[in-house]
Backbone:
């Protein structure tokens, strides 16, 4: 049956197309948008500054994870890999960044290139453990990284502060519940958290609120809202005892949260749908329900530093080149998005909305 045969489907697709036209398509990075700050003019750059720092995540499957030792059993981590997969990282966003970085290492006339030794791959999850930052994208502000290659959602604040690619994936916040599990009658009194999220993600900042606004978890709404206001660290504050108790538990990683969830220590596992599904698949026998509904519409993109001092022209030029090649790869009929999906999801069918999103970016194949 055609996608447009039903009236309800047609309305949904028209809404999505309008959303993409208004929000996605105007996003375009040119060299003149990577601004160089006014300041002391410098015609030379220290060799230590001629290093492009790429930030990746170790714990956001299936979009960015690692590092692992490359071996012949992993088709993505082969001799054809770029610098990110060669360092042992893999996933949908890794694939996209890696392919662009590979192209940058090829001499192409007078275009700026990236040579061996002129890039560095850093684990942003590891960097965040040593900071008090609320958002990993803030690592761009201080120059700890120059480009963030991970599943980072587009929002208004980030659009104001950073260079951003076109949207690269369409996802949304959802939640999982273990098969046979039931919502506890009382928040306290059982060694179990009602909701589990990874602390420094959109799931805690926006996702829980979106789920509540849908009418879900109505009986616990007031308690959950109070916990969102009072939760300061990564432990729940609504119960006096330690452990995974209370309305909300903020884990430090998806690995930690998925393990606790699969052990029955968390009732609802909240996060971007593809990430939470991939995380629980790491634990054999962890059977789940829910996950059919998305409560938000989020678009992943690659973010980079926007402003540079004059002594950092070398970096600014290469970031502009990175976005130039990325944009070409995304909108080509043989789109980088399709290759990244096939390499990551291994033949899994695409939803109608995701397929329409890809069509809007690269046209019909």
Residues:
């Amino acid at each position: 049956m055609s996608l447009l045969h039903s009236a309800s489907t047609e309305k949904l697709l028209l809404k999505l197309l309008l959303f993409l036209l208004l929000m996605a398509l105007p996003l375009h990075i040119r060299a003149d948008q990577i601004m160089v700050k006014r300041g002391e003019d410098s015609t030379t750059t220290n060799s230590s500054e001629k290093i492009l720092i790429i930030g990746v995540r170790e714990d956001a499957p299936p979009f960015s994870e690692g590092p692992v030792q490359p071996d012949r059993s992993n088709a993505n981590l082969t001799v054809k890999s770029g610098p990110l997969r060669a360092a042992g990282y893999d996933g949908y966003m890794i694939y996209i960044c890696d392919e662009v970085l590979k192209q940058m290492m090829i001499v192409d006339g007078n275009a700026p290139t990236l040579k061996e030794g002129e890039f560095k791959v850093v684990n942003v999850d590891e960097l965040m453990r040593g900071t008090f930052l609320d958002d990993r994208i803030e690592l761009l502000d201080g120059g700890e990284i120059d480009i963030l290659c991970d599943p980072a959602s587009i929002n208004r604040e980030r659009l104001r502060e950073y260079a951003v690619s076109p949207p690269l994936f369409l996802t949304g916040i959802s939640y999982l519940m273990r098969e046979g599990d039931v919502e506890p009658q009382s928040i306290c009194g059982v060694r179990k958290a009602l909701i589990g999220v990874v602390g420094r993600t959109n799931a805690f900042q926006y996702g829980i609120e979106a789920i509540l606004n849908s009418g879900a978890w109505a009986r616990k709404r007031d308690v959950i809202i109070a916990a969102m206001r009072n939760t300061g660290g990564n432990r729940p504050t609504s119960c006096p005892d330690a452990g995974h108790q209370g309305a909300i538990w903020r884990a430090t990683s998806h690995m930690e949260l998925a393990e606790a969830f699969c052990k029955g220590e968390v009732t609802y596992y909240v996060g971007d749908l593809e990430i939470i599904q991939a995380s629980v698949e790491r634990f054999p026998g962890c059977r789940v329900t829910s996950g059919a509904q998305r409560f938000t519409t989020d678009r992943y993109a690659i973010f980079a530093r926007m402003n540079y001092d004059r002594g950092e022209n070398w970096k600014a030029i290469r970031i502009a080149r990175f976005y130039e090649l990325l944009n070409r790869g995304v909108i080509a009929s043989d789109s980088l998005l399709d290759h990244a999906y096939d390499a990551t999801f291994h033949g899994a069918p695409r939803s109608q909305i995701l397929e329409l999103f890809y069509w809007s970016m690269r046209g019909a194949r």
Notes: The first helix runs from residue 7 to 23. The CA atoms of residues 262 and 284 lie 9 Å apart.
